[in-house]
Amino acid sequence: MALWGGRFTQDADQRFKRFNDSLRFDYRLAEQDIISSIAWSKALASVNILTVQEQAKIEEALQQLLVDVRADISIILSSNAEDIHSWVEQKLISQVGDLGKKLHTGRSRNDQIATDIKLWCKSEINLLLAAIKNLQQTIVKTAEANQDAVMPGYTHLQRAQPITFAHWCMAYYEMLLRDSNRLSDALLHMDSSPLGCGALAGTTYPIDRAQLAGWLGFSRATNNSLDSVASRDHVLELLSIASISMIHLSRFAEDLIFFNSGEAAFIELSDRVTSGSSLMPQKKNPDALELIRGKCGRVQGALTAMMMTMKGLPLAYNKDLQEDKEELFFAMDCWHDCLYMAALVLEDIQIKRERCKEAALQGYTNATELADYLVLKGVTFREAHHIVGQLVLEAIEKNKKLEELSLPELQQQCSVIDDDVYNILSLSSCLEKRCAQGGVSSQRVASAIERAHYKLKNE
Ligand code: ARG
What we know:
Elements: H1 14-20, H2 23-26, H3 30-46, H4 52-71, H5 84-96, H6 109-145, E1 150-155, E2 158-164, H7 165-189, E3 192-193, H8 209-215, E4 220-221, H9 225-230, H10 233-260, E5 267-268, H11 287-310, H12 324-347, E6 350-351, H13 353-361, H14 367-376, H15 381-397, H16 407-413, H17 421-424, H18 427-432, H19 442-458
Parallel strand pairs: 3-4
Antiparallel strand pairs: 1-2, 5-6
Helix pairs in contact: 3-4, 3-6, 4-5, 6-7, 6-12, 6-19, 7-10, 7-19, 10-11, 10-12, 11-12, 14-15
The chain binds arginine (ARG).
């Protein structure tokens, strides 16, 4: 039976019921709904709506329901209940009889769902923080093992300057660090309990909402009842963070897909995260990475969908808000899976060092070094840039690397060049010269790794 049959004389059309019911997805809020119901029963006891014995009886039945649900969440899905709130109430009534009908006193499904969603988001954030940390740990480990793996760094997907695989890894560590900080901030923003706001205008019972909030693990109660039942910016914020982080993961995936291509051939992915072709026997495709890249789009879609749902929605509660859950659940599951999949891919990645080095030596990635060298010899940078450009042109024509040009050939373009130039043009010099903070020099990368280790262990 629906929770609201009294003023109706006709049954709901079955098609409407299917359209309206949310149990098939909001069953995931069962734990939160039971926990907030227990807290609410305590609040009712505090204002003498329930006796101490009645509250204890309700709490006992709800605790048992919590155990049952944790053991097998699928027990919910066979029910015909409209939503998770109706399901919990029905179950309670079936256990404790008419006493269960008192639980909804002073409460609305509007403040209930707002509370359940916040509780769910808070616990989900903790899972996501752990997933980010797990990926960061794998990234740092991979960086540590590949500090001397030199490869070309790119701009415009053109070889630009040499970097190390470790430095590449640590770039993603930094992005994930910001994602994780964003999540921790969001946790603070959503740390207020809507319970006790009723349908929209507040509850008539003199409940201590701050105490109630504390029972649920919130640090405070919300300030305005309309805002409490109508707002979902915590959902939007979480979806925004997921969208940004998925963009990071999609770029991580794309880089690795390119590194794994036949053309680059810098890495080999494990059989555990690749698949074959049904037709071409030689193929080994980077499916895990492609799916991370692909799913990124769907998470952006979830954010956009939810933004559009909220736009222009009048205060306070509207059923439109029911549409938040499928998007939120999908996006968080997807992000969570992608974080673990990215770690799995990295776990047994193989770096083909020789090939990486060979590529770093090609493409005139040391041309900037030569310009900097000329600057040290007193040439202005703009002039140096021009001279080196001409040397590169000459080298291309002669099918040589810069360091393969003879000293007379170099001096012909610029007389200040000496034979100390060859050392400057070496890969190790290119790397080690970049020793300012954030640069690719071995010492800077090593201390970035050390800092990351420390942070991951102590925070
Ligand atoms: N299933 C609803 C939701 O997700 C719960 C709140 C229902 N409130 C109402 N007045 N019909 O938003």
